[in-house]
Amino acid sequence: MEYVTLNNGIKMPKLGYGVYQTPPEDTQRCVLDAIDVGYRSIDTAQAYGNEEGVGAAIAESGLPREEFFLTTKVWITNAGYEKAKASIEASMEKLRTDYLDLLLIHQPFGDYYGTYRAMEEFYKAGKLRAIGVSNFGPDRYLDIQHFSEVKPAVNQIETHVFQQQKLAREYLKKYNCQIESWGPFAEGRKDMFINPVLTEIGKKYGKTAAQTALRFLMQSDVVIIPKSIHKERMQQNFDLFDFTLTADDMAAIEALDGGESLFFSHYDPKTVEWFMSIL
């Protein structure tokens, strides 16, 4: 496994396993399969509704808790100091742990400043090894970075070959915040799995377009958490450490960047209205 070192000295695996949209009834099995493959970093969230399955799988694995890097996220309905504190305790109970390796604010809406103050308290108490944000564009990231006492260690944002987040990465690097990708496969949009550039480059190494896309992100110093409910795909997504893309390969893939979201923009008023409707 390869690691990045966060701004507080904590080491985080470059490759993890995500459980977004994994049905709660399948989560324990899927995470156990992922652990068997070799994953030790597991990413979940309050909004996914499957924290219990993750916690059950880690307990059933029989491996020491310290072997895992466990991430969850505070949802916007739990935003604010008091609600966030209660939700963090609830998440740790569901995950059967007395500490989290990384806790993120899931969305840049609601009283996320109150949420972050609660997270800082848990961090100082030793219950969180690192804290950060998710879906924070450069403007909101810079805002919370400037005014927070414990600087965000990670920003998890949509990042894939078609949206490489070049502007965001510029500022995250400047302030020593690690970028982490959600949606590293772009959920298959723009025919990513048969993209001719990725396919041709992959052929040189005996790899798929998907593996090539993941390797590109890793070599770009992006932490990735690909998701699959199929063990054979989990294995394929894990087999990224036996090849290295050349500078020409990297340049060809960099040229695929469209610089725009393939899902939704947090700056779009309709998107913001949708998030507000949840509240």
TrEMBL record:
Gene3D superfamilies: NADP-dependent oxidoreductase domain (3.20.20.100)
Signal peptide feature range: none
InterPro entries, per database record: AKR (IPR020471), Aldo/ket_reductase_CS (IPR018170), NAD(P)_OxRdtase_dom_sf (IPR036812), NADP_OxRdtase_dom (IPR023210)
Keywords: NADP, Oxidoreductase
Residues of the NADP-dependent oxidoreductase domain: 20-256
Protein's UniProt keywords contain Iron: no
NADP as UniProt keyword: yes
Pfam family, one: Aldo_ket_red
Family assignment from sequence similarity: Belongs to the aldo/keto reductase family.
Protein name stated in the entry: Aldo/keto reductase
Organism: Agathobaculum hominis
